[in-house]
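Data card: per-record layout.
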Amino acid sequence: HQLTNPPTHLPAVVLMYFNVALSPGGILSAYLIHRDVSGTGLAVFRGACALMGFLGSLVGKALINARGLMSAGRISLTFVVATLGLSLLVRIDSVGLFAALIAASRIGIWAFDNVNAQLFQQGTSSSEQSGLAATEAALCSAAEIAMFGLVVGRGKEVAVEWFGWLGFLGWFMVVGGWIAFFWSSWSREKEHDL
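The structure for this 194-residue chain is written out next.
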């Protein structure tokens, strides 16, 4: 079954998943442990990420209502790019500020998730939505597998020596997603103006 109206913003969503710092996963946790963050500190960090995700959902709804769908997506992704980029710049000097900025980036991610969900609902027929959701999930999983493939066999060395490289590689992917969304949203707005 061929999709008749594939979403143009899908590359932006997939590129967001090629990142070691956007979620409190194994690689990021290993890096924080190496930086002497305690178990309590990790729990606080994960809790802060969850809280920021909840806040991001509220911010996303408010942004969509105030600025419109495409503008809300651009603002959300710009926030992610900025906070993630700043976190990678300060990671050597301040692990606390690094973790706080990573947690703050979750606001933008979850705000963008609201935009993504609405774009799927508005841009596709109900018969295609499940196929698109499955395709999106599969592509995002493939991006995560590709990222983890870069670190297989390196163990602790990745968390310690390669984390900066992986973090900046992931940030460039997020910037690529940001560019892809800006392009697709402007194209979509231009089509609707005609």
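Known properties of this structure: The CA atoms of residues 46 and 111 lie 18 Å apart. The longest helix spans residues 156-193.

See the next section for split statistics.
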